[in-house]
From TrEMBL:
It is an enzyme of class 2 (transferase). Keywords: Aminotransferase, Pyridoxal phosphate, Transferase. SUPFAM superfamilies: PLP-dependent transferases (SSF53383). Residues 37-387 form the Aminotransferase class I/classII large domain. PROSITE patterns: AA_TRANSFER_CLASS_1 (PS00105). Belongs to the class-I pyridoxal-phosphate-dependent aminotransferase family. Its EC number is 2.6.1.-. It comes from Lactobacillus johnsonii N6.2. This is Aminotransferase. Its cofactor is pyridoxal 5'-phosphate. One of its GO terms (molecular function) is pyridoxal phosphate binding. Pfam families: Aminotran_1_2. One of its GO terms (biological process) is amino acid metabolic process. InterPro entries: Aminotransferase_I/II_large (IPR004839), AspAT/PAT-like (IPR050596), NHTrfase_class1_PyrdxlP-BS (IPR004838), PyrdxlP-dep_Trfase (IPR015424), PyrdxlP-dep_Trfase_major (IPR015421), PyrdxlP-dep_Trfase_small (IPR015422).
Length: 394
Protein backbone atom coordinates (compact mmCIF):
# COMPACT_ATOMS: atom_id res chain seq x y z
CA UNK A 1 0.00 0.00 0.00
CA UNK A 2 1.47 3.38 -0.93
CA UNK A 3 2.28 5.81 1.86
CA UNK A 4 1.92 9.52 1.12
CA UNK A 5 5.28 11.19 0.55
CA UNK A 6 6.51 13.03 3.67
CA UNK A 7 6.96 16.27 1.76
CA UNK A 8 3.26 16.22 0.76
CA UNK A 9 1.67 15.42 4.08
CA UNK A 10 1.62 19.04 5.26
CA UNK A 11 0.36 20.57 2.05
CA UNK A 12 -3.27 19.49 2.15
CA UNK A 13 -6.06 22.09 1.86
CA UNK A 14 -5.83 23.75 5.27
CA UNK A 15 -9.49 24.81 5.21
CA UNK A 16 -10.26 21.17 5.86
CA UNK A 17 -8.28 21.05 9.09
CA UNK A 18 -11.09 22.47 11.17
CA UNK A 19 -13.70 20.20 9.62
CA UNK A 20 -14.17 16.93 11.44
CA UNK A 21 -16.16 14.05 10.02
CA UNK A 22 -19.94 14.20 10.57
CA UNK A 23 -20.73 13.61 14.25
CA UNK A 24 -24.15 12.32 13.24
CA UNK A 25 -22.58 9.63 11.05
CA UNK A 26 -19.92 8.83 13.66
CA UNK A 27 -22.56 8.37 16.36
CA UNK A 28 -24.64 6.25 14.00
CA UNK A 29 -21.65 4.05 13.20
CA UNK A 30 -20.93 3.55 16.90
CA UNK A 31 -24.57 2.71 17.61
CA UNK A 32 -24.62 0.27 14.68
CA UNK A 33 -22.06 -1.90 16.48
CA UNK A 34 -24.57 -2.66 19.23
CA UNK A 35 -26.23 -6.00 18.43
CA UNK A 36 -30.02 -5.78 18.05
CA UNK A 37 -30.15 -1.97 18.16
CA UNK A 38 -33.07 -0.17 16.52
CA UNK A 39 -31.73 2.92 14.84
CA UNK A 40 -33.80 6.05 14.68
CA UNK A 41 -30.66 7.95 13.81
CA UNK A 42 -30.52 8.48 10.06
CA UNK A 43 -32.74 10.52 7.74
CA UNK A 44 -33.28 7.72 5.30
CA UNK A 45 -36.74 6.66 4.10
CA UNK A 46 -37.39 2.95 4.64
CA UNK A 47 -39.84 3.02 1.71
CA UNK A 48 -38.71 1.85 -1.72
CA UNK A 49 -38.51 3.81 -4.96
CA UNK A 50 -41.79 3.29 -6.88
CA UNK A 51 -41.63 0.53 -9.53
CA UNK A 52 -42.64 2.76 -12.43
CA UNK A 53 -39.67 5.01 -11.64
CA UNK A 54 -37.28 2.06 -11.58
CA UNK A 55 -38.73 0.82 -14.88
CA UNK A 56 -38.14 4.21 -16.50
CA UNK A 57 -34.46 4.06 -15.54
CA UNK A 58 -34.09 0.49 -16.82
CA UNK A 59 -35.74 1.37 -20.15
CA UNK A 60 -33.43 4.36 -20.44
CA UNK A 61 -30.33 2.22 -19.91
CA UNK A 62 -31.56 -0.30 -22.47
CA UNK A 63 -32.12 2.48 -24.97
CA UNK A 64 -28.40 3.28 -24.70
CA UNK A 65 -28.90 6.66 -23.15
CA UNK A 66 -25.34 6.65 -21.89
CA UNK A 67 -23.73 9.80 -23.17
CA UNK A 68 -23.10 13.18 -21.58
CA UNK A 69 -26.39 14.88 -20.82
CA UNK A 70 -26.82 18.66 -21.25
CA UNK A 71 -24.93 20.19 -18.33
CA UNK A 72 -27.87 21.91 -16.63
CA UNK A 73 -30.08 18.86 -17.11
CA UNK A 74 -32.16 17.14 -19.78
CA UNK A 75 -34.69 19.60 -21.26
CA UNK A 76 -37.55 17.23 -20.47
CA UNK A 77 -36.52 17.06 -16.82
CA UNK A 78 -36.09 20.83 -16.56
CA UNK A 79 -39.60 21.15 -17.98
CA UNK A 80 -40.94 18.55 -15.51
CA UNK A 81 -39.35 20.43 -12.58
CA UNK A 82 -40.71 23.76 -13.81
CA UNK A 83 -44.21 22.26 -14.07
CA UNK A 84 -43.89 20.62 -10.68
CA UNK A 85 -42.93 23.88 -8.96
CA UNK A 86 -45.80 25.63 -10.69
CA UNK A 87 -48.23 22.89 -9.66
CA UNK A 88 -47.10 22.52 -6.06
CA UNK A 89 -46.15 26.08 -5.11
CA UNK A 90 -47.55 28.25 -7.89
CA UNK A 91 -44.09 29.65 -8.62
CA UNK A 92 -42.94 30.19 -12.20
CA UNK A 93 -39.46 29.24 -13.30
CA UNK A 94 -38.35 29.15 -16.93
CA UNK A 95 -37.08 25.66 -17.67
CA UNK A 96 -34.40 26.92 -20.04
CA UNK A 97 -32.80 29.63 -17.92
CA UNK A 98 -33.85 29.27 -14.29
CA UNK A 99 -33.41 25.62 -13.28
CA UNK A 100 -30.44 23.31 -12.81
CA UNK A 101 -30.40 19.55 -12.14
CA UNK A 102 -27.89 18.50 -9.47
CA UNK A 103 -26.41 15.49 -7.69
CA UNK A 104 -28.90 15.39 -4.83
CA UNK A 105 -29.87 18.38 -2.73
CA UNK A 106 -26.33 18.16 -1.34
CA UNK A 107 -24.92 18.88 -4.80
CA UNK A 108 -27.37 21.75 -5.08
CA UNK A 109 -26.17 23.24 -1.78
CA UNK A 110 -22.58 22.99 -2.94
CA UNK A 111 -23.35 24.69 -6.26
CA UNK A 112 -25.22 27.49 -4.51
CA UNK A 113 -22.68 28.13 -1.75
CA UNK A 114 -19.87 28.18 -4.30
CA UNK A 115 -21.86 30.54 -6.52
CA UNK A 116 -22.69 33.17 -3.91
CA UNK A 117 -20.11 32.98 -1.12
CA UNK A 118 -16.64 34.52 -1.05
CA UNK A 119 -14.11 33.73 1.68
CA UNK A 120 -15.02 35.80 4.74
CA UNK A 121 -18.66 36.29 3.75
CA UNK A 122 -21.23 35.65 6.47
CA UNK A 123 -24.25 33.45 5.90
CA UNK A 124 -26.95 33.17 8.55
CA UNK A 125 -27.96 29.68 9.60
CA UNK A 126 -30.96 29.29 11.93
CA UNK A 127 -30.27 26.35 14.24
CA UNK A 128 -30.66 23.53 15.18
CA UNK A 129 -30.00 22.55 11.58
CA UNK A 130 -28.76 19.76 9.35
CA UNK A 131 -25.09 20.04 10.20
CA UNK A 132 -23.61 19.47 6.75
CA UNK A 133 -24.38 23.11 5.97
CA UNK A 134 -21.57 24.17 8.30
CA UNK A 135 -19.02 22.03 6.52
CA UNK A 136 -20.07 23.03 3.03
CA UNK A 137 -20.10 26.72 3.95
CA UNK A 138 -16.67 26.50 5.57
CA UNK A 139 -15.30 24.74 2.48
CA UNK A 140 -15.94 27.96 0.55
CA UNK A 141 -14.10 29.96 3.22
CA UNK A 142 -17.32 31.71 4.26
CA UNK A 143 -18.54 31.99 7.86
CA UNK A 144 -21.78 30.42 9.09
CA UNK A 145 -23.45 32.63 11.74
CA UNK A 146 -25.75 30.50 13.86
CA UNK A 147 -29.12 31.82 15.00
CA UNK A 148 -30.44 29.78 17.91
CA UNK A 149 -34.21 29.44 17.43
CA UNK A 150 -34.85 27.18 20.42
CA UNK A 151 -36.57 29.96 22.41
CA UNK A 152 -39.17 30.43 19.65
CA UNK A 153 -40.25 26.83 19.15
CA UNK A 154 -37.53 26.42 16.51
CA UNK A 155 -39.02 28.99 14.15
CA UNK A 156 -36.92 32.03 13.25
CA UNK A 157 -38.92 35.17 13.91
CA UNK A 158 -38.49 38.35 11.83
CA UNK A 159 -37.61 40.27 15.00
CA UNK A 160 -34.86 37.84 15.88
CA UNK A 161 -33.51 37.95 12.33
CA UNK A 162 -33.37 41.74 12.42
CA UNK A 163 -31.58 41.77 15.79
CA UNK A 164 -28.97 39.34 14.48
CA UNK A 165 -28.50 41.44 11.35
CA UNK A 166 -27.72 44.45 13.53
CA UNK A 167 -25.27 42.51 15.69
CA UNK A 168 -23.26 39.33 15.03
CA UNK A 169 -24.76 38.94 11.56
CA UNK A 170 -24.05 42.51 10.44
CA UNK A 171 -23.11 42.62 6.77
CA UNK A 172 -24.30 39.06 6.11
CA UNK A 173 -24.74 38.16 2.49
CA UNK A 174 -27.28 35.39 2.73
CA UNK A 175 -29.50 33.27 4.90
CA UNK A 176 -30.37 29.61 4.52
CA UNK A 177 -33.73 28.33 5.70
CA UNK A 178 -34.65 24.65 6.00
CA UNK A 179 -38.39 24.24 5.72
CA UNK A 180 -39.70 21.74 6.77
CA UNK A 181 -36.84 21.40 9.18
CA UNK A 182 -34.37 18.65 9.82
CA UNK A 183 -33.95 18.06 12.79
CA UNK A 184 -36.98 19.75 14.39
CA UNK A 185 -39.80 18.86 11.98
CA UNK A 186 -41.07 22.43 12.24
CA UNK A 187 -42.80 24.12 9.29
CA UNK A 188 -42.82 27.88 8.65
CA UNK A 189 -46.31 29.46 8.51
CA UNK A 190 -46.96 31.63 5.44
CA UNK A 191 -47.26 34.80 7.54
CA UNK A 192 -43.85 34.25 9.15
CA UNK A 193 -42.22 33.61 5.78
CA UNK A 194 -43.79 36.77 4.42
CA UNK A 195 -42.47 38.80 7.34
CA UNK A 196 -39.03 37.21 7.05
CA UNK A 197 -39.07 38.08 3.34
CA UNK A 198 -39.46 41.75 4.24
CA UNK A 199 -36.42 41.70 6.52
CA UNK A 200 -34.41 39.75 3.96
CA UNK A 201 -35.25 42.40 1.36
CA UNK A 202 -34.54 45.31 3.72
CA UNK A 203 -31.04 43.96 4.41
CA UNK A 204 -30.33 43.00 0.78
CA UNK A 205 -29.73 39.31 1.47
CA UNK A 206 -29.84 36.32 -0.79
CA UNK A 207 -32.15 33.69 0.68
CA UNK A 208 -31.53 30.01 0.08
CA UNK A 209 -34.39 27.67 0.92
CA UNK A 210 -33.75 23.97 1.40
CA UNK A 211 -37.15 22.46 0.65
CA UNK A 212 -36.10 18.82 0.33
CA UNK A 213 -38.91 17.82 2.73
CA UNK A 214 -41.47 20.13 1.11
CA UNK A 215 -43.94 17.36 0.24
CA UNK A 216 -43.82 15.85 3.72
CA UNK A 217 -46.06 18.09 5.83
CA UNK A 218 -48.82 16.79 8.11
CA UNK A 219 -51.94 17.66 9.99
CA UNK A 220 -53.21 20.39 7.66
CA UNK A 221 -49.89 22.18 7.55
CA UNK A 222 -49.04 23.59 4.13
CA UNK A 223 -45.57 23.98 2.70
CA UNK A 224 -44.80 27.48 1.45
CA UNK A 225 -41.66 28.89 -0.09
CA UNK A 226 -39.84 32.22 0.03
CA UNK A 227 -39.95 31.95 -3.77
CA UNK A 228 -43.64 32.83 -3.49
CA UNK A 229 -42.77 36.16 -1.85
CA UNK A 230 -39.26 37.12 -2.96
CA UNK A 231 -38.52 35.14 -6.12
CA UNK A 232 -36.09 37.90 -7.13
CA UNK A 233 -33.71 37.01 -4.30
CA UNK A 234 -34.55 33.42 -3.37
CA UNK A 235 -32.63 30.34 -4.48
CA UNK A 236 -34.85 27.29 -4.08
CA UNK A 237 -33.29 23.89 -3.49
CA UNK A 238 -35.14 20.61 -3.52
CA UNK A 239 -34.96 17.11 -4.95
CA UNK A 240 -36.47 13.66 -5.09
CA UNK A 241 -34.57 11.99 -2.25
CA UNK A 242 -37.16 12.12 0.50
CA UNK A 243 -40.71 12.22 -0.87
CA UNK A 244 -39.97 9.70 -3.65
CA UNK A 245 -37.70 7.50 -1.50
CA UNK A 246 -34.82 8.08 -3.91
CA UNK A 247 -31.91 9.00 -1.63
CA UNK A 248 -29.46 6.71 -3.43
CA UNK A 249 -30.32 7.98 -6.90
CA UNK A 250 -28.81 11.38 -6.07
CA UNK A 251 -31.17 13.72 -7.85
CA UNK A 252 -31.74 17.30 -6.74
CA UNK A 253 -32.43 20.65 -8.37
CA UNK A 254 -32.14 24.40 -7.98
CA UNK A 255 -34.50 27.12 -9.16
CA UNK A 256 -33.40 30.76 -9.16
CA UNK A 257 -33.46 33.97 -11.22
CA UNK A 258 -31.60 33.62 -14.54
CA UNK A 259 -28.82 36.05 -13.57
CA UNK A 260 -27.61 33.93 -10.66
CA UNK A 261 -28.65 30.66 -12.30
CA UNK A 262 -26.09 31.29 -15.07
CA UNK A 263 -23.35 31.14 -12.42
CA UNK A 264 -24.92 28.18 -10.64
CA UNK A 265 -25.13 26.19 -13.88
CA UNK A 266 -21.49 27.01 -14.59
CA UNK A 267 -20.39 25.77 -11.15
CA UNK A 268 -22.52 22.64 -11.48
CA UNK A 269 -20.93 21.91 -14.86
CA UNK A 270 -17.45 22.43 -13.40
CA UNK A 271 -18.14 20.05 -10.54
CA UNK A 272 -20.10 17.20 -12.12
CA UNK A 273 -20.35 17.87 -15.90
CA UNK A 274 -23.87 16.47 -15.89
CA UNK A 275 -26.11 14.24 -13.80
CA UNK A 276 -26.38 10.53 -14.70
CA UNK A 277 -28.65 9.95 -17.72
CA UNK A 278 -30.80 7.13 -16.36
CA UNK A 279 -31.27 8.93 -13.05
CA UNK A 280 -32.62 11.91 -14.94
CA UNK A 281 -34.93 9.58 -16.91
CA UNK A 282 -36.20 8.17 -13.62
CA UNK A 283 -36.78 11.68 -12.29
CA UNK A 284 -38.77 12.68 -15.39
CA UNK A 285 -41.03 9.70 -14.79
CA UNK A 286 -41.32 10.38 -11.05
CA UNK A 287 -42.36 14.00 -11.57
CA UNK A 288 -44.63 13.46 -14.59
CA UNK A 289 -46.26 10.14 -13.69
CA UNK A 290 -45.77 9.79 -9.95
CA UNK A 291 -48.01 12.47 -8.57
CA UNK A 292 -49.59 10.05 -6.12
CA UNK A 293 -46.27 8.81 -4.70
CA UNK A 294 -45.42 11.71 -2.37
CA UNK A 295 -49.00 11.74 -1.14
CA UNK A 296 -48.78 8.08 -0.26
CA UNK A 297 -45.45 8.60 1.52
CA UNK A 298 -46.93 11.55 3.36
CA UNK A 299 -49.83 9.43 4.65
CA UNK A 300 -47.47 6.71 5.87
CA UNK A 301 -45.20 9.16 7.70
CA UNK A 302 -48.15 11.04 9.14
CA UNK A 303 -49.46 7.84 10.77
CA UNK A 304 -46.03 7.05 12.15
CA UNK A 305 -45.60 10.55 13.50
CA UNK A 306 -48.95 10.34 15.28
CA UNK A 307 -47.97 6.99 16.79
CA UNK A 308 -44.54 8.14 17.97
CA UNK A 309 -45.62 11.57 19.17
CA UNK A 310 -48.52 10.21 21.21
CA UNK A 311 -46.37 7.44 22.66
CA UNK A 312 -43.49 9.74 23.58
CA UNK A 313 -45.76 12.37 25.13
CA UNK A 314 -47.39 9.68 27.26
CA UNK A 315 -43.92 8.89 28.56
CA UNK A 316 -43.42 12.54 29.50
CA UNK A 317 -41.29 13.70 26.58
CA UNK A 318 -41.78 17.33 25.57
CA UNK A 319 -41.42 18.68 22.05
CA UNK A 320 -42.39 21.59 19.82
CA UNK A 321 -45.10 20.04 17.64
CA UNK A 322 -43.46 18.24 14.71
CA UNK A 323 -45.27 19.23 11.51
CA UNK A 324 -43.15 17.92 8.67
CA UNK A 325 -40.12 15.93 7.42
CA UNK A 326 -39.70 12.70 9.42
CA UNK A 327 -38.14 13.78 12.69
CA UNK A 328 -39.15 14.37 16.26
CA UNK A 329 -36.89 16.67 18.27
CA UNK A 330 -37.67 15.80 21.85
CA UNK A 331 -36.41 17.22 25.13
CA UNK A 332 -34.49 14.64 27.12
CA UNK A 333 -35.72 13.58 30.59
CA UNK A 334 -34.78 16.00 33.40
CA UNK A 335 -32.52 13.42 35.07
CA UNK A 336 -30.02 14.01 32.27
CA UNK A 337 -30.05 17.81 32.55
CA UNK A 338 -28.91 19.04 29.15
CA UNK A 339 -26.54 16.16 28.50
CA UNK A 340 -28.11 14.81 25.35
CA UNK A 341 -24.97 12.83 24.52
CA UNK A 342 -25.18 10.93 27.83
CA UNK A 343 -28.89 10.26 27.28
CA UNK A 344 -28.34 9.04 23.71
CA UNK A 345 -25.42 6.86 24.80
CA UNK A 346 -27.36 5.24 27.62
CA UNK A 347 -30.44 4.75 25.47
CA UNK A 348 -28.26 3.04 22.87
CA UNK A 349 -26.36 0.79 25.23
CA UNK A 350 -29.07 -0.03 27.77
CA UNK A 351 -32.29 0.09 25.74
CA UNK A 352 -30.79 -0.57 22.30
CA UNK A 353 -32.47 2.37 20.66
CA UNK A 354 -30.31 4.76 18.64
CA UNK A 355 -31.24 8.47 18.61
CA UNK A 356 -29.05 11.44 17.69
CA UNK A 357 -27.83 13.97 20.29
CA UNK A 358 -29.33 17.39 19.61
CA UNK A 359 -26.07 19.28 20.10
CA UNK A 360 -24.81 17.85 16.81
CA UNK A 361 -27.26 20.16 15.02
CA UNK A 362 -25.78 23.40 16.30
CA UNK A 363 -26.84 26.02 18.86
CA UNK A 364 -30.06 25.36 20.73
CA UNK A 365 -29.89 21.60 20.24
CA UNK A 366 -28.40 20.84 23.62
CA UNK A 367 -30.76 18.88 25.86
CA UNK A 368 -32.69 17.40 22.91
CA UNK A 369 -32.45 14.30 20.78
CA UNK A 370 -33.58 13.75 17.22
CA UNK A 371 -35.60 10.64 16.48
CA UNK A 372 -36.29 9.72 12.88
CA UNK A 373 -39.59 7.96 12.20
CA UNK A 374 -38.58 6.91 8.69
CA UNK A 375 -38.42 3.34 10.07
CA UNK A 376 -41.04 0.61 9.69
CA UNK A 377 -44.08 0.72 11.99
CA UNK A 378 -42.98 -2.56 13.64
CA UNK A 379 -39.56 -1.07 14.42
CA UNK A 380 -41.14 2.07 15.81
CA UNK A 381 -43.48 0.03 18.02
CA UNK A 382 -40.57 -1.95 19.40
CA UNK A 383 -38.45 1.20 19.83
CA UNK A 384 -41.21 2.88 21.79
CA UNK A 385 -41.57 -0.16 24.05
CA UNK A 386 -37.85 -0.10 24.77
CA UNK A 387 -37.84 3.65 25.41
CA UNK A 388 -40.77 3.20 27.83
CA UNK A 389 -38.89 0.56 29.78
CA UNK A 390 -35.76 2.70 29.84
CA UNK A 391 -37.62 5.76 31.07
CA UNK A 392 -39.37 3.79 33.81
CA UNK A 393 -36.00 2.77 35.19
CA UNK A 394 -34.20 6.09 35.36
N1 LIG B 1 -31.07 18.95 3.20
C1 LIG B 1 -31.54 18.44 4.33
C2 LIG B 1 -32.20 19.36 5.31
C3 LIG B 1 -31.44 17.07 4.60
O1 LIG B 1 -31.90 16.58 5.75
C4 LIG B 1 -30.80 16.23 3.65
C5 LIG B 1 -30.63 14.75 3.87
N2 LIG B 1 -30.49 14.31 5.15
C6 LIG B 1 -30.32 16.81 2.49
C7 LIG B 1 -30.48 18.17 2.29
C8 LIG B 1 -29.62 16.00 1.46
O2 LIG B 1 -30.44 15.54 0.45
P1 LIG B 1 -29.86 14.67 -0.72
O3 LIG B 1 -29.84 13.26 -0.27
O4 LIG B 1 -30.82 14.88 -1.86
O5 LIG B 1 -28.51 15.17 -1.05
Amino acid sequence: MPKLANDLSLTKNTRLNSLGPSKIRAFDEKASQIPGIIKLTIGEPDLNTPDHVKDAAIADIKANDSHYAPQAGKPELLEAISNYLDRSLDVKYDSKTEICVTVGATGALNDVFMSILNPGDKILVPTPVWALYFQLIKLTGAIPVQIDTSKDDFILTPEHLETVLQNEGKGAKAIILTDPSNPTGRVYPAATLKALAEVITKYHLFSVTDEIYGELVYDNNVHHSLSQYIPERNILISGLSKAYAMTGWRLGYIAAPADIMKTIQKVNAFLVTSVTDNVQAAAIDALNNGQADPLEARKIYEDRLEFMKTGLEKLGFEMSTPQGAFYIFAKIPDTFGTDDEAFANELATKAKVGVTPGRYFGKGGQGYVRMSYASSTEQLQEALKRIAKFVENI
